Fold this protein.
Amino acid sequence: MKGGCEGLGTQKVAVFGGTFDPVHLGHLLIAQTASSQMDLDRVIWVPTRYPPHKCSQSLVEFEHRLEMVRQAIADNPAFVVSPVEINRTGSSYAIQTFIELQALYPAIQWYWIVGADAFQTLPKWQCRDILAASVEWLVAPRLMRGSAAGEVGETGWSDGIYLETQILCQQVANHLAHTSMPVRWQVLQSPLVAVSSSLIRQFCREHRSIRYLVPEAVRIYIEAENLYQSEVDR
Ligand code: ATP
């Protein structure tokens, strides 16, 4: 299977990598915010086969995660899912994925969508210097442990978290300041949504409803395939 949509020319394309175990509304919201805010032509969703920072044995199978993303984004023509990591045997490193995507989609202005928690770990990523300078980072604010959220306004917006995210991004950029090109980043103006895949998995285990936390097609898929029922598929 090929990785995606050839012939895009010089378009603005964002990579959105994640474990997506399972994909949820927080993911969709930040991808759409990135798309609107940056006027992107495409968002390429890339389910990670073996995330280096997570225990792969406890993930549900890659094919399930890929299929759930496929179903979640089916109604959005600007979103595509890439199975580029399908043949990986070892840890999935973002740099390798990026090199493969560059070969599939030449001459593109690249962006990378990431939550603030994940962006914070960028200084530990493999070949971070090359990757950091090759894309513009679109960082979604996220409620994290220890966040001083302050007041969340009617639009779901929190000036406190926005500022906190900007400081965090600047710290990461400073950390990588020795790279040949400056790290380019901007904070996404996405409403804060405190949904995570861990929460969805927990709700499934506890037989609580996940309706409205994931797209309906994904909820039906999870039910039909009996996913996340036991401690094993956490
Ligand atoms: P888990 O709970 O299993 O750690 P997760 O909800 O963080 O999973 P991932 O697939 O690991 O989901 O996330 C993919 C990317 O989306 C990461 O960059 C993560 O920071 C970001 N992300 C996920 N959920 C949110 C959210 N609610 N708000 C902002 N960013 C998010």
Summary: Residues 18-21, 26-27, 30, 114-115, 117-118, 140, 142, 193, 195-198 surround adenosine-5'-triphosphate (CB under 6 Å).
